[in-house]
Amino acid sequence: MSTGEQSTAGRPVDETLARWQAREAEVRAALAGFGLSRPEQVLGRSGLEIFQAMMAGELPAPPIAQTLGFLLVEADHGRAVFQGKPEMAYYNPLGSVHGGWYATLLDSAVACAVHSTLPAGRSYTTLELKVNMIKALSVKVPLVRAEGRVVHAGRQTAVAEGSIYGPDGTLYAHATTTCLVFDLPPLSR
């Protein structure tokens, strides 16, 4: 059973979709816009605290979320969930959503799952991302979620996996990532 099936099991599709839409509306209502946080805004915050501040409207959401129409809607220690709507603007010449949209949505979910485990003063960068597209996405799919989960969080590397699934539990893609974890240099005064 896929993560999506587990997440939506026992719930009618319309109920799941309504719950997802309500959560997105709640996050968008609090959104502080899109942009980059200044270093002093994130100084002393853990990865999870940064994500909580974004969803609460204390920090801006990253510009890529606006460009590609997705949004962080949940974050816990070792887990991050992004939500997006497949749009015609993301189509490739073959008439379906471009694989780059899948990859960016999944990269955000799995990398932020890693980031959510990091204390203040630590950061990461993606070393490797592998994406498997399972099923084509189109504008007929009302909304999807990309959920990333940490598999291993070490001092120097972290590994996470994630899935894109619809409100009916359909699995559209799966990914794994390996991230390099490091100390941030001190801010110059």
Share of helical residues: 25-40%
Question: What is the H/E string?
Answer: HHHHHEEHEEEE
User: Cα-atom Rg, whole angstroms?
Assistant: 16 Å
Which CATH top level class fits? Alpha Beta
Overall residue-averaged pLDDT value: 93
For the structure shown, list the relevant keywords:
189 residues; alpha+beta; Thiol Ester Dehydrase, Chain A; 30% strand
Protein described:
This protein has 189 residues and is of the alpha+beta class. It has one domain: Roll (Thiol Ester Dehydrase, Chain A), CATH 3.10.129. It is 31% helix and 30% strand. The protein is built from 6 helices and 6 strands. It is globular, with a radius of gyration of 16 Å.
What does this entry show, briefly?
The chain has a single domain, classed as Thiol Ester Dehydrase, Chain A (Roll).
Give the topology, please.
Elements: H1 3-8, H2 13-30, H3 39-42, H4 47-55, H5 63-67, E1 70-76, E2 79-84, H6 99-115, E3 122-133, E4 144-153, E5 157-165, E6 171-183
Antiparallel strand pairs: 1-2, 2-4, 3-6, 4-5, 5-6
